[in-house]
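Supplementary Methods. Inverse-folding protocol.

Structures were first reduced to a discrete structure-token string of length 68. This string, shown here, constituted the complete conditioning input.
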């Protein structure tokens, strides 16, 4: 399920996490060559990505079944 980034925080070891609209958190590391997210290293870069949609796998797993 797609969720918007509403805020960022640092975890216990200094890696950035996005806080999503649903309340779940997701790491958004810059770890080249595997993950290229240089924008996460600056306040301006993180500000630019507020509202950006990420796929929240926790929401997908916890989603209630549709009633028929």
């Amino acid at each position: 399920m797609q969720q918007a980034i509403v805020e960022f925080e640092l975890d216990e070891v200094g890696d950035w996490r996005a806080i999503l609209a649903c309340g779940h958190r997701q790491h958004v590391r810059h770890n080249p060559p595997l993950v290229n997210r240089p924008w996460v290293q600056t306040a301006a870069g993180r500000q630019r990505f507020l509202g950006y949609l990420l796929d929240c796998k926790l929401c997908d797993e916890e989603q209630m079944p549709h009633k028929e």
